[in-house]
Amino acid sequence: MLKEISLADVRGLVGTETGLSDWIVVDQTMIDAFADATHDHQFIHTDPVRAAESPFGGTIAHGFLTLSLLSTMNYNCLPKVREQTMGINYGFDAVRFAAPVKAGARIRGRFVLAEARFRGAGMLMTTYEVTIEIENERKPALTARWTTIIQFDPKDRPEDV
Fold this sequence. Notes:
The chain is of the alpha+beta class and about 160 residues long. It is built from 6 helices and 8 strands; from the N terminus they run βαββαααααβββββ. It has a single domain, classed as Hotdog Thioesterase (Thiol Ester Dehydrase, Chain A, Roll).
């Protein structure tokens, strides 16, 4: 995978897989910390004894915890745009939590650049088809369309756009 690209190169990557992150272990400590931060202490996340009796057979990560890990996956594997001065989350479309992430599981993100378009003098809007895979599982934990904005100095805008 590419480590760094220029603004002029981004549109040429549309339709290609541009990143595959390292595996991340989602352990009970991480799940508990997320529960504390969000005040979501539902037993399927935080009570291993009670959750063992659920259809999941143990605790599972919050769907929003799984979604939030896309940020670290992004930084881990997507090529950096040389001219970027700042990145901004714009939003998600069609987020689906397809399978639970059991405590102790390893997950990783797969990113396909679906769209890249310049907006205004100093913004590039990118949309990724993202999938969070669970190691040794057929179904992904999550799929979504994630749109971000790359800000850059207008003087760095490619001439052909």
